[in-house]
Each structure stands twice: as structure tokens, then as C-alpha cells.
Write a structure and sequence with these properties.
- By secondary structure, this protein is of the alpha+beta class.
- Helices cover 28% and strands 34% of the residues.
- The protein contains 2 helices and 10 strands; from the N terminus they run αββββββββββα.
- A hairpin with a 5-residue loop joins strand 9 and strand 10.
- The longest helix is centred in the last third of the chain and has 27 residues.
- The termini are far apart.
- The relative contact order is 0.18.
Length: 184
């Protein structure tokens, strides 16, 4: 008698779990972000795939590795950024997100690097326009709540601690690059 109820209960639980699993795959993005492009590609181990960004404004690059591990490097000074020559990067084992400021000179070079730990890496990159940054008469980007989106230079004790923190991060990243270069 319990067997039919158990089967029905399992079927009901499976039916409720299926929509949640598909919803987890859909990324939630802020309403102010407008999807411009979806780019899918493949890159071999230790190689780069290069893309060019011509859109003006504050751009969000959201990349996820479908297979392997692809890393993201962005530059407004070269169309072929690499892990040695870049302005912005996202090199994680999970989803990679880079915010390209509106003041970056166009075209912006995007390099997708296939990490050597995988023979091939397959990626999907979504390109969003962030419309939450509004243009001000003097060119400063500001958010609707009044918070400043651009890095501010303050001349006080807070500014000094932020500068010291930035120097520490630079040193830490340099040491990590050195260790990774020695290991690989």
C-alpha cells in the first residue's frame, strides 16, 4: 500500500525540482542592464580568442565557462590583451565578470584565454549595457542613488588607507603571478 504513495511522492518532488533547476541556470541581472550580444566560442589550452568591443557606455562582460576554464582580459590600449598586458581581468574558476568603464577608449580589446589545465575551453559571454550609470553635465558617472561610480581621489585619512590597500593588492597580485609562473 505504501509503494504507490512513495512513487507518487517522488514524482511530485521531481516535478517541483525541475523548474527550480532550470531557473538556477538562468542568471538574474539587474533591470538596468540591457543585453547587447551573446558570444559563444572555444579556445585551446594556452591560446587566446580575441574580440573587439565598439559599444559606447558602461559595459558589463559576463562570461561563464561551459567546459574547461576560460579567463577574461580587457584593454583599451591594445586589441590583443593577454595576462601580461591588460587593464581589466577576471581569471576565476567560475563565472568571470568585468565592468568596462564608459571612459575606456573604443574599440576595447577582449582576450579570452584558455587555461592550460584543460585541453579545450568552451565559453559563453553575455555583453550588457549598464544603463544605471547616468551621464552628468560635466562627464562624471553617477548612480541614481547618488553614489559615485568612478574612483574618487580623496585627500584625507580615508584616501591614504585606500591607497595603501591598493598597493597591498598590487603586491599580492604580483606575488601570485610569480608563483603561478614558477608552477606553470
Amino acid at each position: 500500500m505504501a509503494a504507490p504513495w512513495t512513487g507518487a511522492l517522488l514524482l511530485l518532488l521531481a516535478a517541483q525540482a525541475a523548474p527550480r533547476a532550470s531557473a538556477a541556470q538562468d542568471e538574474e541581472v539587474p533591470a538596468e542592464w540591457v543585453l547587447l550580444h551573446v558570444v559563444q566560442g572555444q579556445v585551446g589550452a594556452g591560446n587566446y580568442s580575441y574580440l573587439r568591443l565598439n559599444h559606447e557606455g558602461r559595459i558589463v562582460l559576463a562570461m561563464r565557462s561551459l567546459r574547461g576554464d576560460a579567463d577574461l582580459y580587457v584593454s583599451d590600449s591594445t586589441l590583443h590583451p593577454s595576462f601580461d598586458d591588460y587593464e581589466l581581468q577576471a581569471a576565476t574558476c567560475g563565472p568571470d565578470v568585468v565592468l568596462v568603464p564608459a571612459h575606456f577608449q573604443r574599440p576595447v580589446g577582449i582576450g579570452v584565454y584558455g587555461h592550460p589545465s584543460h585541453q579545450d575551453s568552451e565559453f559563453e559571454m553575455k555583453v550588457y549595457l549598464d544603463r544605471s550609470a547616468q551621464r552628468q553635465p560635466f562627464g562624471d558617472a553617477a548612480y541614481p542613488d547618488g553614489a559615485d561610480a568612478s574612483p574618487a581621489h580623496t585627500y584625507g585619512p580615508e584616501g591614504a588607507s585606500q591607497e595603501e590597500e591598493s598597493v597591498l593588492w598590487t603586491i599580492l597580485i604580483s606575488l601570485l603571478k610569480l608563483v603561478l609562473e614558477i608552477l606553470f
